[in-house]
Amino acid sequence: MTNYKWLTNQLLKEYFKVKETIAIVVGGGPAPGINGAISAATIEAIKKGKKVIGIVGGFKSLFAGDKKKAIELTFDNVSKIHITGGSILRTSRDFPEKAKERFRVLISTLKSLKTRYLITIGGEGTLYMARWIEKEAKGSIAVVHVPKTIDNDLPMPGGIPTFGYETARHWGVEIVENILEDARATGRWYFVTTMGRYTGHLALGMGKASGATVTLIPEEFKEETLSFKKVADILEGSIIKRLSIGKDYGVAILAEGIANKFDPEELMRHECVEKDETGRVRLSEIQLGRVMKMLVNKSLESRGIKVTIVDKNIGYELRAANPIPFDAEYTRNLGYGAVRFLLMGGTGSMIVFYEGKLKSVPFCEMFEPETGKPKMRYVDIASEPYLVGREYMVRLEKEDFKAENIRKIAASANMRVEEFKKRFLYIV
After folding, report:
1. Average pLDDT per run of 10 along the chain, which is 428 residues long?
2. CA distance 35 to 78
3. 17-163+323-366: which CATH topology?
4. Which residues on adjacent β-strands are paired with residue 143?
5. Residue ranges of domains in the chain
6. Is the pTM of this model over 0.85?
7. Under a CB-based contact definition with an 8 Å cutoff, are residues 372 and 363 in contact?
8. Catalytic: 400?
9. Residues facing residue 145 across a β-bridge
């Protein structure tokens, strides 16, 4: 005969059993698809009987020990967010003074929230934090990282993009295509600066897909300290070459990371340099296009050439856009994969979707052993994707300095042949 009292007690114990908690934290700048990763992870975790909390405000809230910033995530508040931009948990860049001391507060806050599993969503800075937490937690908190950045600069296997990049490129191309038409209609040049702190993936992708006249990225400049003059001369060379074929308009795309290569003292003479919460220069606030416009205009006007140049920044418009279907689907895979990895006993890895399968990449493979810093994926300027893009740019080339070509181009620059050669040959 069934012992109903015993069975009832067992059911009550099971019902009131404390559920293991999965915490989700977002770091770094916004990227399209963050909400998709949050949504998929939350739904999968709840289906597996876990409690899910989101840390509003990112690591800044954890460093501050603010437990009130932890909110419970449910089916109702995440079921429709995967198609929206931004982040329902917000995000932050924060690396406080006395980081080691404050880090103890961060760990203590996670533990006081009964966190058993942690999902971090972010770029290289957040990856660094994820590894640090996993190491210091000593097995008490399992950690998995979901890579996101519109810069596309994390070394993903097989060259797959980080989530957010494809959407950012898509909307960037839409904007640049409109600017190209405006340039054509009004007979003017646009110098468009876009995001990419260290790398030129986004700028190159936008330039290739939109058919921009010329795209400049930091990887093509190998010198330790880059001069403003060299960048300006490349841009001026493109304008002159276009004038030589009767075209008075064009669009140049500049990756903001170029500014990282300038001499800081020279940069400060042209720009008021601001820093973000981590102490890094706000490259998106540097008006690279404006500085280049000033230098190029000054040079052209000194020879009696009048060209209208407009500078424009494209960056913040791309970061919180609604994800295109690629990123909406991609982030669902990653969010699901992150939870599955954790609940199968995994920790200390980044989750990726590669060759049609979810895979994990151990943190140790993502860091430089010499420096302890996250590895970066740079544009390989010897690769076919870059060379194809380069082939369709309008820039001064070695062929332009041959006897049969140089006279026409030099005349468009209002310069004698030898003068033109002396001024511009070095950039090719």
Report:
1. 58 63 97 98 98 97 96 96 97 78 94 98 95 96 98 95 98 98 98 95 98 98 94 98 98 95 77 59 72 97 98 94 98 98 98 96 96 95 98 98 97 98 97
2. 8
3. Rossmann fold (3.40.50)
4. 118
5. 17-163+323-366, 167-318, 396-428
6. yes
7. no
8. no
9. 120, 350
Name 279's Cβ contacts closer than 8 Å, sequence gap at least 6: 95
User: For 155-204, what is the HEC assignment?
Assistant: CCHHHCCCECHHHHHHHHHHHHHHHHHHHHHHCCEEEEEECCCCCCHHHH
**List 94, 151, 233, 311, catalytic entry:** 151
Give CATH for domain 167-318: 3.40.50.460
Size of the chain, expressed as the number of residues it contains:
428
Helix (H) or strand (E) holding 26: strand 21-26
Q: Which one, of 281, 183, 308, 296, lies nearest residue 231 by Cα?
A: 296
Buried b (16+ CB within 10 A) or exposed e, 336-372: bbbbbbbbeebbbbbbbbeeeeeebbebeebbeeeee
17-163+323-366 with 167-318: one CATH topology? yes
